[in-house]
Write a structure and sequence with these properties.
This protein is an alpha/beta fold. Helix content is 30%, strand content 23%. It is built from 10 helices and 14 strands. Bound molecules: S-adenosylmethionine. S-adenosylmethionine binds at residues 169-170, 172-174, 197-198, 200-201, 203-204, 259-261, 264, 287-288, 303-305, 319.
Length: 374
């Protein structure tokens, strides 16, 4: 086996960002709702897990076919070469989902796929009794959409947003993958000044610093597929060497994270230290009304409170108004704000250059983008 088909899963609205990252790694992605598929050599599994900043996880596609009956699902599953992926002692729990399909009982689909894989593996690995399932973990998923069943194995383990640096967090932290996307959706470059005036646990500044120094976001964590025999250890070593070579630890950065809450500044600074970036980001306790733009052409990227509770509405309206008054006085700055607050542009005092619908977890938000005048 030389090549595999991979799916990088993505939050809705971020598919194009993930596809761009996949292309930058040298693969040729096809984009569908929430998934980015591509064919690649096996070495892409370590590389994608290490480097994709915005994808949720990376799965291997074992097979895809139209199925309308349980028999068809069983036969399809059993005909696939699971033995090339799952070792003799491998654990293979099966999860599932079904949407707009004749086979809608997810628990039955899971049980059938489990049975078909077990039969196939017993036959191919020459196991007489039950499969032992004492070894490495291979999380299988059966996903049926409009009668097309896709069988995949997860290569990531914990979601890719778990970079390993967030040892503390505030009330409404951003997922690291979304924070990275917010930075990648701007024109910010490592040499530009960047301020997050609502930094909370520091996710945006930390992700920006990782991007600015080209540090692979998965560098400090492990992945479930590291235990798999069919991925040679050499591929993991090569991917880590590549990440080490491409990191630009000498790149100076001008990133500031500030927050009204001094406790969050302590949390942010501890998280940055955990990420190995302690000297690279300046943290300070400050309310947004004290923000002073001392030079031109900087970037504000922020995830302020959204005012989801009625009692907070006036507070956030005033907050957006304050931010708008500061930013609208220097139009060389670019401002990027994510919020679910529908009247944001009115309070901020200016129509955004561009808006992008994004989901922050289950909350529908807009990413308001004000491009600075050069
Ligand atoms: C949604 S949280 C930001 C979460 C952050 N992105 C993270 O990943 O942890 C909003 C932050 O805005 C801060 N905040 C609220 N009012 C503020 C103000 N007037 N000035 C500055 N920060 C404020 C809160 O303390 C809170 O940490």
């Amino acid at each position: 086996m030389n090549e595999v088909t991979l799916i990088a899963t993505s939050a809705m609205g971020l598919e194009a960002v993930v596809a761009k990252e996949v292309r930058q790694l040298g693969y040729d992605p096809v984009v569908e709702n929430g998934k980015i598929s591509f064919t690649a050599p096996i070495s892409a599994i370590p590389r994608c897990n290490l480097w994709l900043r915005v994808a949720d996880r990376v799965r291997i596609v074992i097979g895809e076919e139209k199925v309308e009956t349980f028999d068809e699902l069983f036969e399809m599953t059993k005909a696939l070469s699971w033995e090339k992926f799952i070792s003799e002692d491998g654990k293979f729990p099966v999860t599932g989902k079904s949407h707009k399909s004749k086979l809608f009982s997810v628990s039955d689909c899971q049980a059938i796929v489990k049975k078909a894989i077990a039969e196939r593996l017993k036959l191919k690995h020459g196991v007489a009794s039950k499969m032992p399932e004492t070894g490495a973990l291979y999380k299988v998923e059966v996903s049926i959409l409009k009668d097309i069943a896709t069988l995949t194995i997860d290569t990531s383990g914990e979601g890719l947003h778990k970079r390993g640096y967030r040892i503390g967090q505030g009330e409404a932290p951003l997922k690291e993958t979304l924070a990275a996307a917010l930075v990648l959706l701007t024109n910010w470059k490592a040499t530009d000044l960047l301020i997050d005036p609502f930094c909370g646990s520091g996710t945006i500044p930390i992700e920006a610093a990782l991007i600015g120094q080209n540090i692979a976001p998965g560098f400090n964590r492990s992945f479930v597929s590291e235990d798999w025999k069919f991925i040679k250890q050499r591929y993991w070593n090569e991917a880590l060497d590549e990440a080490e070579q491409l990191a630009n630890y000498d790149q100076p950065l001008r990133i500031i994270g500030s927050d009204i809450d001094h406790k969050m500044i302590e949390v942010s600074s501890n998280n940055a230290m955990e990420a190995g970036l302690s000297d690279l980001i300046q943290w300070k306790q400050m309310q947004v009304s004290d923000l002073v733009l001392k030079e031109d052409n900087g970037y504000v990227i922020g995830n302020p409170p959204y005012g989801e509770r009625i009692k907070d509405k006036n507070y956030v309206a005033h907050l957006y108004n304050t931010l708008g008054n500061i930013m609208n006085n220097n139009k060389t700055w670019s401002t990027y704000i994510i919020t679910s607050y529908k009247e944001f542009e009115k309070e901020y005092g200016r129509k955004a250059t561009k808006k992008r619908k994004l989901f922050n977890g289950f909350i529908e938000t807009n990413y308001y983008q004000y491009y600075g005048r050069k």
